[in-house]
Amino acid sequence: MTDKRTKKELLAEIEVLRRRLAGRSDLEQRVAGRTRELEGANRKLRNEIRERRRVEEALRRNTLLFKGLLDNSQALIFIKDLEGKYLLANSRFDLLSLKDSGSAFGKTAAELFPGEMADAVEVEDRIVARTKSALTRDKLIDVHGEQRVYSVTKFPLLDEYGKCCAVCGVATDITAHKRTEDELKKALSALRTTFDTIPGMLRVVDREFRILDASDSLMRHLGAASREDVLGRRCYEVLKGRSSACSECITEKVFRTGCTQTRMSTPEEEDLYGFFFKLYAAPLRDEYGEVGGAIQMIMDVSDIRRMEEALRQSETNLSRAQRIAKVGSWSRDIGTGELWWSEEMALLYGYEPVNKFDTFSLFVRHLHPEDRDRVIGVIEGAVEGRQGYDSEYRIIRNDGEIRVVRAQGEVEFDGQGRPKRFFGTTQDITDQVRLEKALRAAKDEAETANRAKSAFLANMSHEIRTPMNAILGYLALILQEDLEPRQRERLEVVEGAARTLLTIINDILDYSKIEAGKFMIRDRDFDLHNVLETLVKEQQVLASERGLELDMVIDPAVPRELNGDPFRLRQILLNLVNNAIKYTEVGRVEVSVAPDPEAEPVTDRVGLVVTVRDTGIGIPEDQQRMIFESFTQVDSGLTKKYAGTGLGLAISKKLADLLGGGLSFESRAGEGSVFRLRAPFRIARGASGQAGAETEFAMAGAPELPSLRILLAEDNKVNQLFAVDLLQERGHRVTVAENGAQAVEAARDSVFDLVLMDIQMPVMDGMAATREIRAASAGATPGDVPILGLSAYAMTEEVEGFLSAGLDGYVTKPIDPEHLFMTIALLLDKRGRLGPARGARNCPATVGYVDEAALGGQYKGKAKLFGKVVDTFSAEAPGYLADLSAAARSGDWERLLHVSHVLRGNSLLFGAWRLKELLDRVDTAGRKRDAGRLMDLVPDLILEVDGVAGALKRLTDNL
């Protein structure tokens, strides 16, 4: 028994050991696999480190190359920002430092140059930045006690939006060139004077060398009182110290050969005459052809000699200038093909610096093979077209290096109009091309990053707006119910916080659109007084709650009717006024408008200054520099008390720039602030409507709609529940589709009065579904069914894309219920589908001015809001009627239809069916251009509007 038990135990131990060995083998295999993975990752990491070092080394080399090119340039090169500070200057520019101020980086002209010179520099910079054009000036500069002449060229550096962001400049020392020009001018002037007054000293001699006649110029030169003192004497005798003929007398050769002779004066003769001259001698023949005498002309060519010397010096200087600027000159004889190169041209092509003569084939041989046919074609085209040419191409130097050059040439023609000679210049622009390529690459990279940022913000907007739609929507529905005061108070706090969050989102999107250059300025006619008065009325409630006075003053000289973008103007001023109220604890806020005294007077334009002044906390001086910076508030301590994104003023500043104006401010801590908006506007030609009035009315409340069959295409479950609840509460029948494909199928199977289409959905998006529904001809729902887009996207270009896909309108999430129903009402009315559905309420004879029963239920518990709506309508309706009447008289049909459309929206808002019927007739007459019918309708409209205003006032008192 003992042996058997021991054997079992041994077997058990053996099994345990076997299992442990098997597990250890598996573990070793797993460790080996993981080791291989780590080794692979390590190799990849080493490769990435090597690649990064290679890129960094290449970047360092390129940086050194760029700096070397700048510092070794013979020209002075610099770049300045719009505030006049030097962002870049090469070493030669720093050496110019007239005040011994060292490096120019970060300094202004006032820190580098004397007062008048600094002022002139700044004026030129502003001209270049404003005109976006290059400016070239020659300047005389005292450089460390030496007068030097510089040719300075300044040009603007434009960003991707075409806006000047910096001023670049290149200055070249042309002192030697100017001196050469002055010397040449003097030589030419002297030469002209000599030939104009004394063409030459003339004398006639016989064969005995006796003077028979002499010119006045010769007489004056010899100092003779009369001709008798000279005539009859031998020509050499009149010269002081001479008793015999010259050893090289050309007159004697004339007598001997009978041919004209010329020679230059000898040094001895120069001393006798006192100048360097050229002597001409021609035979005088008698009637038998015998040479009986000679005529001599002594030309003073001293100036020509000096000019030739100056010309040689000029050619030397020109060669130096060409070498500095890397510009060579050339000339080609079209007939012979002979090609002449300047010294710099030879250097450019890699030859010794000597004037080079060869044939055109040498030039062709150095052209890059890929550019050769194009360049030859350009040259031949210039010759055939009898015009110059300007071309950039690559050459292969004699040493094999490839360079990029720019060649400019002109063609010279002979008297018969045939091409004779081709001449021009060639400049090495390799470095410039490389720099431009690098700048383009940097620009493309920046644009790519900006597009990625804009796409991210748009997507972020959609993702945030989607839940915000449900939050604000359900809050609006709950607040319409009977609630306990404490519940209502808490829910109103939540709603306010949610709308504040939505404002922050909108600020971020606005700033992103402005940065991306996609913020549109849309000009239209508008009433400035109405825009300002409406804004002040809206802010009056907030000011009153804080115990502040809010006043507005409009200078009588300010035109009422303007043309511009009233919405962007309102956005700027709303932010300024809101900030003034927010940062003012005690006192007042004042908005004033006056003509801009600094604006240039133009017939059809006016510059305005809108000032917002407050008695608030002010802005400390050390923090004023960052007031317009993005995502920044002037004090971190204020952030908790005065919450916000720090984008409001940054957006306002950029909007002011887009309007063509500017935004500035003055402030002292504890003494308040003054913000000034300067902006130009056109003076409107005709009457204008009330900008934004229709939108304001739409936000105040919506008319009662007939029961509609609505197809809701929405994939988000929360938004589905909210939208269905909202629509069914108003008596509408709703069918839900969870994607675009289901929406298209539902439209084919059932009839709907309206489609609410979300833009972003799975399977098929809203735009594709809209196109399918529009294209369908056999579906139960007609292809022209009104389709209203719903989405959190808010970019202008995106909205335009939605509408181009076939949408009739667009509502941005989070959805404002009243705005949604007003939009639906206006859309159905525009399609002519609203009237019949109202039945008895479509203006029967017994109906009053407004639908008081519907309004009473709609605005129950909202007396303050309703009072504001009524006051606004009563104040603005007369202006609408005046606009409509003026448009009818002047035949401005587009304006008339617009005003009629706005008033029709008001009539739908109040259930003013008789007013709507009158406006329908106005609309019909306007489309028919029936001015007589329109003028007949105006009195009825005035009476009806007065009746509507009175009825609304009575209803306000009863609410």
Could you outline the blueprint of secondary structure elements for this entry?
Layout: H1 2-72, E1 76-80, E2 86-89, H2 91-96, H3 109-112, H4 115-131, E3 135-143, E4 146-158, E5 164-173, H5 175-197, E6 201-206, E7 211-214, H6 216-222, H7 250-257, E8 261-264, H8 267-273, E9 277-285, E10 291-300, H9 302-325, E11 327-333, E12 338-341, H10 343-348, E13 356-359, H11 360-365, H12 369-385, E14 389-396, E15 402-413, E16 419-428, H13 430-479, H14 485-515, E17 524-527, H15 528-545, E18 549-554, E19 561-564, H16 566-582, E20 588-595, E21 605-614, H17 638-641, H18 648-658, E22 662-668, E23 672-683, H19 693-700, E24 709-713, H20 717-729, E25 733-737, H21 740-749, E26 754-758, H22 766-775, E27 787-791, H23 796-804, E28 809-812, H24 817-830, H25 835-838, H26 852-858, H27 863-890, H28 893-910, H29 913-927, H30 931-958
Helix pairs in contact: 5-9, 13-14, 13-20, 14-18, 15-16, 16-18, 19-24, 19-28, 21-22, 27-28, 27-30, 28-29, 29-30
Brief overview:
The chain is α+β, with helices and mostly antiparallel strands.
